[in-house]
Amino acid sequence: KIHLIYNGLDLPVFQQLPEAGSFRRKLNIMAETNIILHLGRIHKRKRIDVLIRAFDQLVQRHPGAMLLVAGPDDGEQAVLEKLCQTLGLEGRVVFTGAVYGMEKLALLRDADLVVSTGVHEIFGLVLFEAVLCGTPVMASDDCGAGRLVEQAGMGWVVKAGAASDLAERMGAALREPEAGQEMVRRGQEFIREMLDWRVITV
């Protein structure tokens, strides 16, 4: 028999989250600005270029949006910064550098939408951490985490590499925050039942 065991999360860590708005204040981002967040290594496999191109389409309809790319550079940041310059997105796309611990939780809590566009990835915890921070998520259909997000009905799943589809879905997510919060509710329930280390290791 085969038993599938997912990566788990330490749920008590999420019981006392940082104060809402603390990361926005750090970067002087206004409360009414919609934050799209990518959190993880800045690597070619993450396909952040697709996210940036989708964001370029998004801001034409949502001019108040901002894209934060948070994480350590793994050889791709200079390429992405050049892409932002070409598209005229300076100031709208911000590379924050790596964030850890409570600072990471503060960023996840203050985002309006966390997006993962990676391909050929087995699994990752960022989307589930975001849900535990109360933030809606969106993932590509070419990663293990995305499949689980779809299975649990805890976020939006988009075709990998399709910038126009991603832009449309991100716009819908910003227009329908209630739908996102309902997905968050389902996701938190799923995580408690399936991804809590205290459950997994019994």
Report on the structure:
The chain is α/β, with parallel strands linked by helices. It contains nine helices and six strands; from the N terminus they run H-E-H-E-H-E-H-E-H-E-H-E-H-H-H. It has a six-stranded parallel sheet with strand order 3-2-1-4-5-6, sandwiched between helices.
Q: Note the total helix count.
A: 9
| Ends distance | 18 Å
Series of H and E elements: HEHEHEHEHEHEHHH
Structural class per helix/strand content?
alpha/beta
Major beta-sheet overview: 6 strands, parallel
Average pLDDT, rounded to a whole number, is: 93
Q: What is Rg?
A: 16 Å
Categorize the overall geometry.
Answer: globular
Question: Low-confidence segments, ≥5 residues, pLDDT <50?
Answer: none
Q: Strand content of the residues, in percent?
A: 5-15%
The number of strands is 6
Strand order of the largest sheet: 3-2-1-4-5-6
Topology:
Layout: H1 22-27, E1 34-39, H2 48-58, E2 65-70, H3 77-87, E3 93-97, H4 101-110, E4 113-116, H5 126-132, E5 137-140, H6 144-152, E6 156-158, H7 163-175, H8 177-194, H9 197-200
Parallel strand pairs: 1-2, 1-4, 2-3, 4-5, 5-6
Briefly summarize what is shown.
The chain is of the alpha/beta class. It is 44% helix and 14% strand. α5 links the parallel β4 (113-116) and β5.
